[in-house]
Amino acid sequence: MKLYFLSLCIMLAVSFAAKAQSKLIFKDKFIYTDVQVFNETKRHSIPSLIDTGCSLCIIDSIFAIDSCGIKEDELQTIPVNQTKDKISSAFIDSIFFCGKTYHKVYCLVADLTGHYQKYAPKFIVGANILRSGAWKFDMEKNIVEPYDSNNKAKGIIYKWKNHEDYPDVAIDYIILDSKVNGKKTRFAFDTGCRNNKLQRGLYVGKPEQIQKETANIVNKLSIKTAELCRNVTFKIGKDEYTLDFIIGDGNIGLLNIEFLQGHSFILNYKKQILELL
Where would one find the signal peptide in this protein (predicted)? Predict the structure, then answer.
């Protein structure tokens, strides 16, 4: 009887650990994992974009209304980035992500399919879920899993800042202080960004004029002219990195998942630490 009970406990522990892990999928410089969305009596398991640059989760409006049972007359409208543009929002009954259920998750409801077209996810995991703890992204096993935020860091440590340190940046942005050509600057680690972006005035040389696809939450996918800067070297802490950048008009630069060059890493929101393993 004792042997059976012990075996059962081991099986349950292994089962829980497996459910706490989520498979990572890499596509078009983005990272996805399966998330279960529960609303009323409906449940859907869908590949979802993990976006460290999003303060809130986002759900596609067509998926929200047609599949999840969210009623249009229940949607609330809020402004976007202090502009005239507006977007809808709603509460989802629950989200199951990496072995944990999050109840009454506040989400933006946007026309992702119409704006991002072939790149559109049905759901985006934002910082209102990610900030609940720490996460280990294992790039060898291609999994993401919860991590004990109290564990002592052993890898390369970058302490990040956010809107509390820099009030001119978006809430929950992961801000890394950096230097480009000896000039101090800031980058946001944004896994929802397809291209790395560099502020104007930091690139030495003449950028290439290219045509690239561009879209955001209020502007549909289109082809626009952009300035490409190749082989830009920048420093974070004592470490040097070299990447290609698109010149952006923001007051901070953007680094996507390409910045980590295949490193496994830990995002520790509790301690505001990015740890490279």
Answer: 1-20
Provide the residue count of the chain: 277
Contact between 115 and 124 under an 8 Å Cβ cutoff? The reply is no
Domains of the chain: 15-147 (2.40.70.10), 156-276 (2.40.70.10)
Handedness of CA 223, 201, 165, 131 (dihedral sign): positive
Strands (E), 160-220: 175-180, 183-189, 197-199, 208-214
Q: How far apart are CA 38 and CA 20, in angstroms?
A: 18
Closest CA to 61 of 105, 122, 129: 122
Using DSSP, state whether 233 is helix, strand or coil.
Answer: strand
Which long-range CB contacts under 8 A does 13-18 form with residues at least 24 apart?
16/99
DSSP strands (E only) in 120-264: 123-125, 134-138, 143-147, 156-159, 175-180, 183-189, 197-199, 208-214, 222-236, 239-248, 253-255
Q: Are strands 86-97 and 30-39 parallel, antiparallel or unpaired?
A: antiparallel
The Cα 109–Cα 123 span in angstroms is 10
One-letter amino acid identity for 269?
Answer: Y
In the chain, the amino acid numbered 237 is G
Positions of the chain with pLDDT under 50: 1-18
Q: For residue range 118-142, what is the model confidence (pLDDT) as tens digits?
A: 889 999 999 999 999 999 999 999 9
